[in-house]
Amino acid sequence: xxxxxxxxxxxxxxxxxxxxxxxxxxxxxxxxxxxxxxxxxxxxxxxxxxxxxxxxxxxxxxxxxxxxxxxxxxxxxxxxxxxxxxxxxxxxxxxxxxxxxxxxxxxxxxxxxxxxxxxxxxxxxxxx
Length: 128
Fold this sequence. Notes:
The protein is of the alpha+beta class. The protein has helices at 37-46, 51-62, 92-102; strands at 6-14, 19-27, 65-66, 69-71, 76-77, 81-82, 113-118, 121-127.
């Protein structure tokens, strides 16, 4: 399952105004590995990415392979496998792709809910 391992939830109650606030913070530790390439490419088109740069990004996303090497001395390694989703974490473009991918998340908020994004952290604030 793709997703994060870190959640923080806080509930604050104001007795005099009878309002309740729930704050949920989510850190996306493995979110870079979960990005759907087709969805990302559509979002890049939506934001105006086209032409040679779009084709280069598409080639980089769809043409990646990886393998795991456990030991150089004993030649313990997996076979090469095609990378079907995700972007390179720790790279400049990977960060930009991730932010592009989640940029419209706050638009999903309903009345009384606010979604705040900062880097790979998401906070959801619900007030009643």
